[in-house]
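--- STAGE predict ---
source: upstream dedup step, 1 unique chain passed
mode: sequence only
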Amino acid sequence: MQKQQQILKQKLKLSPQQIQFLGLLSIPIVDLEKRIEEELEENPTLEESDSTENTDNKEENFHYRSKENKRDFIVDNITASIDSLSSFLHKQIIGINNSDKEVELLEYLIDSLDYNGFLTQRNDAIIDDYFIANDILITEKELNSALDILKTFEPVGVGAKDLQECLIIQLERRGSVYKSISKEILENYYHEFSNKNFEKIIKELKISEKELADVYKEIESLNPIPGSGFSIDKENTEYVIPDFSLKNSEDDISVILNNPNTKIVAVNKYYEKLLKETSDVETKDFLQKKIEKAKWFVDALKKRNKTLKYVMEAIVKIQESYFISGKEYDLKPMKLADIAEIIKMDISTISRVTNSKYVETNFGSFLLKDFFSEAYKKDNGEIISTKEIKKKLIDIIDGEDKTKPFTDEIICNLLGKEEYHIARRTVAKYREELKIPISKFRRKL
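--- STAGE serialize ---
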């Protein structure tokens, strides 16, 4: 016989409005306009207006950005004078003495390059895709002929299938004393070259350490990314648009919330009037729901602005010394819980606010999450940020002898001499976070 029993559980249930508000908190400034446009399209009772009537506090109004905005200005002015890689290559086709079929295939190959300038697809896949797109069957010989032409274009290395071929193409176009040795290493010892297995290369090729050092120097002077330096399509270009700006004065640091807009989002007065006047039950019910939703959205945007500003002001309160000096050692240990305690909000709210948000300071723009770090207590009792340890780790690696780079164990001991007593695995963790390779890959001749 089954027994019945009661279980008492605490469960937090959020309303749809609360869920949507938390979603608004997470949205960075660069995506906020799209979210507002979606709401405007969905809700006819919400409108964008230049009017500032019936507003007591201008800072509480939410401004809606016009189409002629700062971001468009940046995109147009930065990319206007820079060709995309595709455009640059297409211009080189003009005037070449080839058949229309060959030119069309060449244009297709250019449009198939990735942003690095590589053509990573297999030949059989390119042949199949070209047939599907153009209903034209090409042979392997025709494809290779077009590829050979593409590989003569500038920038040198474009059209290669990978980095190895890209470097070989550049070597073939360059005159050098070590050209033959460099090419042999790239063709037959690429794995050893990439992993800096100097001993095997020297032994099997019977070359001196100096010769190998010169080869490495030559290969490292080549361009590993032919597509670098070219613009990409505006639609795919991402720019850092800060959500906050800090203004330093003699007395304090003021926080400016960078509203992306110039128009106010408000409830349409026509529909409010219609709601009062209509006697149709269905119309009244529809308008009631839509107007309530519109009012909530306007209020939610105002609340979002206030919450964001409270959080940023709390961060400034803790990190004031850092925002004045810009020096890493002035960055204090800070956790989400510290901000939550100051502004009396939940940690999850702080997490949403600091997610993907940028702040512009007088020494650069930074992600808010970069200001958070754990605390570390030195031997003398001083509490510092773990970011200070990471900075010291970088200094140690920058100053090492690259012919005999420090292992994580040695770095651990060197940090210990500076009163940063951390485990070797912690050194490895910090090094990986800083995207610094292991000692083997930092090695040079």
